[in-house]
Amino acid sequence: MAKSIKAPWYKFYDNEKEHLEYPDFSAYKLIEYTSSKHLNNISYNYYGNKKTYYEFLKQIDEAARGLKALGVKYKDVVSICMPNTPEGIISFYAVNKIGAIASMIHPLSAENEIKNYLNISRSEWLITIDFTEKKVDKIINDTKVKKVVLVGVGESMPPITKSLYATTTIPKNIIPKTIKTLNPGTYLNNDKRKMSWKEFIKLGKTYYKEIEDGFKGKDIAAILYSGGTSGTPKGVRLTNLNLNASAMQNFEHVACLNDQDKVLAIMPIFHGFGLSVCIHCVQYFGGTSILLPQFNARTFDKIIKKYEPNVIVGVPTLFEAILQNKNFNHMKLDYITCVISGGDTLSVDLKRRFDDFLKKHHSPTTIREGYGLTECCAASCFTPLHYHREGSIGIPYPDTYYKIVDVGTDKELPYGTSGEIVISGPTVMAGYVHNRKETKQTLKKHRDGRIWLHTGDEGIMDKDGFVYFKGRIKRMIITSGYCVYPSNIESVIDSHPAVRMSCVIGIPHPYKVTVAKAFIVLNKGVEESDELLESIKELVEKNLARFSWPYEYEFRKELPKTLVGKIAYNVLMHEEKLKNKNKEYELSTELLKQVIEEENKEE
Fold first, then answer.
1. The domain that contains 549 carries what CATH number?
2. What pLDDT does residue 470 have?
3. How far apart are CA 518 and CA 22, in angstroms?
4. What is the pTM of this model?
5. Range of 101's domain?
6. How far apart are CA 565 and CA 383, in angstroms?
7. What is the pLDDT of residues 477-497, one digit of tens each?
8. Does 529 map to a domain?
9. In angstroms, how far is the first alpha carbon of the chain from the final one?
10. Is 350 part of any domain?
11. Last residue in a domain, options 204, 223, 242
C-alpha cells in the first residue's frame, strides 16, 4: 500500500530509515525493554532529585501496585491532572503498565472543565496536584470518581528546594494552608475518597500478586484533549502503538539525539507535544527528562545555566522570551545540540533571529520546526537535519504520509497548490471518545484504502515533499471573495526590526464583510509612533497583495497567551465582537480566563 503513495521526501533522508518495526506491546513495556540497556542512566531530574532508570521502573511498579490495590482494572480510566512532576510521569506509566487508560487533564483547568473531562472519559479514579483540591471538591459529586489521590508539587523535591518553592512560588490564595507546609495526608482523613500520594504508595505494598503485562499495541493507552477540526473539546484516544511509534519516529527523524542527552521538559505532560516528545521519546532512547512544573521567562537563564540541557523543546513564544532575556548575553551555550519548535507557527523572522542567537552563543545547531496535532501524537513532520527550506515545517516522519487535498474531499491537489493537510500513519489516533460523528468527520477512508486524518489545517507541499503550513482553515479570512491567511501577514509584520510579535484576526466590515486587523507588540525600548506604523505598513504593502493588507492596526504591550504559550487569538476576536456591538467594553479577568480556556481546548 505504501508503494502506491507518492513520497518524494525520502530522498532527503540521510541515514534515517524510511520504515521502522513497531513492537506490539504497551508504552510501559517499550520503556522497560529499552531501559535494560541503560539502567544506570538518569531517567529524570526534578530540581536536583535524580532517578536512574532502575529506580524509575521501581517507582512505576510501586504506583502500579497502588492502582491495583485500589481496584483499577484493564481498560478502566484513571485521570491524571498533574504538571511536570515525577509523580505525573510515574502515574502515567503505572496506569499503562496495568492496562488501564490515562486521561491527561490540565491542572489549571476550571472546575467545570475538570468535571467535563472526568465525565467524557468516565473516570473513576483521579490523581491530581494538591492545589486543585478545592475545585475537585466542588464537582466530584457530579462525576463517577470514587477515589482521589492528592500529590504535593514538592513531593519529590529536595528539602531545601521544597521549602523555597513553597514560600516563593506557590500562590497563597489557591491552596489549603496545610499544603504550604507540604505535609499532604494530615487533612485528608475527613473524606474517605481522598488519600495522599504517600498513603497511595503505602497501600500498594499490600498488593502481592504478579501484574499482567501482556497488553497490545491496539489497546488504548491515553486520552488527551483537543478541539479537533471543529473547535469543540474532545477526548483523543491514543493507542500504545500511537505512542510507541511517535517515540521511535521522533528519535529516528530528529537524527541527533543521543543516549544520556538532557532534554528540558518544558512542554506539559497533558499536552501531546510534552508527553510524546519530552517524556516518552526521551525515556525510549535513554536520555534524561529535566522536569519543570512551570515556566518562568524571567528566570529561564538560571534554569539553562543550572542544568546545561542538550535539547530544548518549546513553542515559539519560549524562544522569543529567550531573545528578550538580557541575562543570556554573556552565556556560552555550546552544550545545546538540538532546538525543537512546535505547537505554533514559527515565523521566518524569529527563526533567523534565534539561529543568530545560537551561533553567537557558540551552539552548533539551529532551531528546527516540527508540525503535528494531538490527533497524531503531536509531531509527525519535522525539518530534516541537513536540509532546510525557508518557511517550511519540514518533511514527514518514517511510515507517515502527507498529502494536500481539496477541502472537504479526498481529491489530491497538485504540488504547490493550497489545500487541507491530511495525514496517514501509525501515530494517527484511534478516534474521539464517545463521539462517532466527529471521528467520522476527521478520520476518512480514501480511495487508496488508507485511513487519513483530516487536520483542518491549510498547507502546501512542494515537489520534493516539503510541507508549508498556512494556518487553521477556520482562521482563514475571506475578504471580498479572496482568501487571506493570518499567518502570512503575521510573518511579514514580525520581520520588521521593531516588532516582537503580532497576531492577525478577521473583523467585520460593512462592504467587504470581513477584513484583517493586526495586533502588534513592539520590542523592548521601542516607542509607538505614527512614523513606525507607516514603516510597518510599507513593509506589508511591499510584500503582500493589496486584498490581504490589514484594514486596522493596533499596538499592544502584550498579547494574550494560552496556558502552553500560544497566542490566544480567540481572546482578541471576543474583544472585537463586543466592541462591534457598541458596548462599553473592558475585558474582565474572568472573561479573559474563560476565553483562554476555550483556546486551550484546541491544544
1. 3.30.300.30
2. 86
3. 46
4. 0.82
5. 27-223
6. 22
7. 877 656 677 888 998 999 999
8. yes
9. 32
10. no
11. 223
